[in-house]
Design goal:
By secondary structure, the protein is mainly beta. It has a single domain, classed as PCu(A)C copper chaperone (Immunoglobulin-like), CATH 2.60.40. Strands 1, 2, 3, 4, 5, 6, 7, 8, 9 and 10 form a ten-stranded mixed beta sheet that branches. A hairpin with a 3-residue loop joins strand 9 and strand 10. The longest helix has 5 residues. The protein starts with a helix and ends in a 5-residue tail after the last helix. The structure holds copper (II) ion. Copper (II) ion binds next to strand 8.
């Protein structure tokens, strides 16, 4: 399955808006997860991601994680995520992400989920998103953590050696 999807390199469309390098963080049923990707706009007109949906979660929201002046992180729901004309926006841990809230199933490393993105102009784009270990992807961030704040020693131990 890794060969087939090339780890998220599958292109959706040569024109307009394309998602690259997409992945979702591994998480347990009942918890939350988040999906990340690079969204590229080949068009000369600005577009925006306005919603996302997936059948693996009760709700899917667009979020921005940001550091407050007191050093704490918070996630702010976004009405949309702008994708500039001839430009790109990166969804990554600690920044913009697609939040998967209330997982109906475990998201196991190596499995895949279906995620549908809706863009203001480009319309719907459906992706088959591989589930990956967030630590392995170099992302800490707070998205999808079962509890808030601080390092999780269990998580570090569970990191597989590449
Ligand atoms: Cu979030």
């Amino acid at each position: 399955m890794w060969g087939r999807y090339g780890g998220g390199e599958e292109h959706t469309d040569g024109e307009g808006v394309e998602a690259h390098d997409y992945w979702a963080r591994a998480a347990m049923a009942g918890g939350n997860s988040a999906a990340y990707m690079l969204i590229h706009n080949h068009g000369g007109e600005a577009d925006a991601l306005i919603s996302a949906s997936s059948d693996v979660a009760d709700a899917v929201e667009l979020h921005l994680s940001q550091m407050n002046s007191d050093g704490t992180m918070e996630m702010i729901q976004q009405e949309k995520i702008d994708v500039p004309a001839d430009g790109e926006v990166e969804l990554k841990p600690g920044s913009y992400h697609i939040m998967l809230i209330g997982l109906k199933q475990d998201l196991m490393v190596g499995s895949e989920i279906t995620l549908t993105l809706t863009f203001e102009k480009a319309g719907e784009v459906t992706l088959t998103v591989p589930v990956k270990d967030a630590a392995e992807m170099g992302g800490s961030g707070m998205e999808g953590e079962m509890h808030m704040g601080g390092e999780d020693p269990m998580h570090a131990e569970a990191t597989p050696t590449p």
